[in-house]
């Protein structure tokens, strides 16, 4: 509520900057960046290092104060800073959710996903990027992109001679190890060793095993790309940031050159011109929506929608990938070994946070430690499954999540899965696929830019994905059955899901039924504007991120990933923006200082 937000603004010295302007943008800029999310905020800031004039347009409003507090992350889900898109899934899937489908959360505010996400800083695997390069994208192999990962990072952890060369120490985004591990997390890492896995550093290029997590948090305050990159340069005269200004269309001349955009601000449609380039950074759902609304995309779909085809590009909105996950595999644990909802409600902990930025409010909410393992077939040592430990499961959290409308399980499923754990300390595993073979699609629902597009995530449409997710569930149970986890009392108490009772308890057919009912998003939509050479029928952008067949238009965000990375998508998106900034500067003759 506005009153609570006002109170928080008074209490929190580090509330996000408001980026308010009293004037409207000028009629023309050199570069127009669409979307101030993970990628857009970085890109606009880097372009403004030159003397070019840069306009950054963001659909959402300023980041509200609660977003700066790591422990309050669940409050943002389903709130006004979240697009909260109901997924389109076939009727045999997701029956465990309200109305048979779950939500996809996407940030709609300054900083985009970085303002509402779980702040996990993940470098992913060397082979992710080598495989991008092998698909015809020179310059995107691991060795070439590593400097761009390091460029945005300000690592605050101690020096480790084995991994120091993979860290950046001078970038704008503060990254550090989790400030506190619960007893449950210690047990989880021990369980990994018991199962024969190493405990490894997140930035190791071939990381495989149980991982010590890194977070983008500094002194108890969330680090977003808008706070880290834009706030320090708000007074630069060549950068104009406008929030609350959704772009509705790209404007083209007769030569298919992007010459500006149409946007909506203060109840009016307006136009602004770009002298050099328009750059879409609206994320994997909205960059394809804007392209399609502008007549760029799959011809038949555009015609069906009554949109004049300016340029046929079959790949726009296709090739959609997300880390399909079972969000909640909850286990009861001994009281006190994990974070509890009551820690958040204690007045002492609130005062600690306000005074010293310490305590549970200062910690990343939820995931403290992931594991990356290979459970599928294939010759390479390239993990295909991740099972993170959530140190506070939803049963414990029922209260908060229900208030924020973020929990979308049906009441019946909630009751069977989490009911038996009510009032107990719990942990949950989140088994997920790192490189799903299924592909989904973003299509238009309406020609209105204010109607969210359809998102069909394609979950389990490839049969191998279902098999692997079942293996991932079983792997979660092997973790729970280790001595280390038994020592903290890990116990499966959930009742069989309705509709799955006919299958013998914990049999493969039971888990198949369970998987189909509960598969959902891990909030990592990507790959809908695939970077690939034009010979690839799904290609949307070139390795320079220029939209094929059009001029002066690029896409720079998570949508360009040819294949989703094997881990959380924010840090790879920072890298994409850092690299794109240099590609653009070089093209226009601005000085480029290659990162070390
Ligand atoms: C709940 C949640 C938890 C997550 N947890 C993690 C995590 O812990 N670690 C991690 O690495 N990743 C995490 N992610 C994913 C990560 O945040 C995203 O992958 C990342 O933000 C994608 O960056 P992007 O630049 O492609 O898009 P976004 O960050 O989504 O930015 C796109 C921006 O464009 C704006 N926009 C959209 N349409 C328009 C328009 N028409 N005009 C103008 N602006 C527009 C949006 O409002 C948004 O601000 C999480 C995501 C969510 C939602």
TrEMBL record:
Cited PROSITE patterns: GMC_OXRED_2 (PS00624)
Annotated ranges, domain Glucose-methanol-choline oxidoreductase N-terminal: 283-297
InterPro entries according to UniProt: FAD/NAD-bd_sf, GMC_OxRdtase, GMC_OxRdtase_N, GMC_OxRtase_C
Pfam families: GMC_oxred_C, GMC_oxred_N
Record's keyword terms, sorted: FAD, Flavoprotein, Signal
Cofactor(s) named in the record: FAD
GO MF terms held by the record: flavin adenine dinucleotide binding; oxidoreductase activity, acting on CH-OH group of donors
Domain of life: Eukaryota
Key word Transcription present: no
Record: residues binding FAD: 247
Family indicated by similarity: Belongs to the GMC oxidoreductase family.
Protein name (database record): Glucose dehydrogenase [FAD, quinone] isoform X3
Organism: Hyalella azteca (Amphipod)
Gene field: LOC108668436
């Amino acid at each position: 509520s506005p009153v609570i937000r006002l109170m928080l603004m008074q209490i929190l010295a580090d509330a996000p900057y408001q980026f308010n302007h009293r004037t409207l943008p000028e009629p023309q800029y050199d570069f127009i960046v669409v979307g101030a999310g993970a990628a857009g905020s970085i890109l606009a800031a880097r372009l403004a290092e030159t003397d070019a004039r840069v306009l950054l347009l963001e659909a959402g409003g300023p980041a509200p104060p609660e977003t700066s507090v790591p422990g309050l992350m669940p409050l943002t889900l389903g709130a006004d800073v979240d697009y909260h898109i109901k997924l389109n899934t076939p009727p045999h899937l997701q029956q465990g959710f309200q109305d048979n489908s779950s939500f996809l959360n996407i940030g709609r505010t300054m900083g985009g996903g970085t303002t509402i996400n779980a702040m996990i800083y993940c470098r992913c695997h060397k082979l992710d990027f080598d495989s991008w390069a092998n698909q015809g994208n020179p310059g995107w192999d691991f060795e070439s992109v590593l400097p761009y990962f390091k460029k945005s990072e300000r690592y605050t952890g101690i020096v480790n001679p084995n991994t120091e060369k993979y860290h950046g120490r001078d970038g704008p985004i503060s990254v550090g190890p989790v400030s506190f591990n619960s007893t449950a997390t210690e047990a989880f890492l021990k369980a990994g060793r018991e199962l024969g896995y190493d405990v490894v550093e997140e930035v190791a290029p071939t990381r495989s095993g149980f991982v010590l997590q890194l977070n983008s948090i500094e002194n108890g305050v969330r680090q977003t790309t808008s706070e880290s990159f834009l706030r320090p340069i708000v007074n630069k005269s060549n950068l104009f940031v406008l929030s609350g200004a959704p772009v509705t269309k790209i404007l083209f001349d007769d030569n298919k050159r992007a010459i500006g955009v149409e946007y909506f601000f203060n109840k009016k449609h307006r136009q602004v011109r770009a002298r050099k380039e328009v750059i879409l950074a609206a994320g994997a759902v909205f960059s394809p929506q804007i392209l399609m609304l502008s007549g760029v995309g799959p011809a038949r779909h555009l015609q069906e929608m009554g949109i004049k085809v300016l340029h046929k590009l079959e790949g726009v909105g296709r090739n959609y990938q997300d880390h399909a996950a079972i969000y909640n595999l909850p286990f009861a644990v001994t009281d006190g070994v994990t974070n509890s909802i009551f820690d958040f409600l204690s007045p002492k902990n609130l005062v600690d946070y306000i005074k010293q930025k310490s305590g549970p409010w200062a910690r990343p909410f939820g995931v403290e430690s992931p594991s990356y393992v290979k459970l599928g077939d294939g010759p390479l040592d390239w993990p295909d499954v991740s099972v993170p430990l959530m140190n506070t499961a939803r049963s414990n959290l029922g209260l908060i999540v229900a208030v924020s409308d973020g929990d979308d399980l049906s009441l019946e499923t909630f009751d069977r899965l989490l009911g038996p754990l009510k009032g107990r300390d719990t942990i949950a595993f989140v088994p997920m696929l790192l490189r799903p073979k299924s592909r989904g699609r973003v299509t238009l629902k309406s020609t209105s830019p204010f109607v969210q597009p359809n998102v069909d995530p394609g979950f389990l449409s490839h049969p191998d994905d279902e098999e692997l997710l079942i293996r991932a569930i079983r792997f979660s149970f092997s973790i729970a059955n280790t001595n280390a986890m038994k020592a903290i009392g890990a116990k499966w108490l959930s009742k069989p899901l309705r509709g799955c009772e006919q299958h013998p308890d914990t049999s493969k057919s039971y888990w198949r039924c369970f998987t189909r009912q509960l598969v959902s998003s891990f909030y990592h939509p990507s790959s809908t504007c695939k970077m690939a050479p034009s010979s690839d029928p799904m290609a949307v952008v070139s390795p320079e991120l220029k939209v094929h067949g059009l001029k002066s238009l690029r896409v720079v965000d998570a949508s360009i990933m040819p294949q989703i990375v094997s881990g959380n998508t924010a840090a790879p998106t920072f890298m994409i923006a850092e690299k794109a900034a240099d590609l653009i500067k070089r093209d226009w003759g601005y000085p480029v200082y290659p990162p070390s």
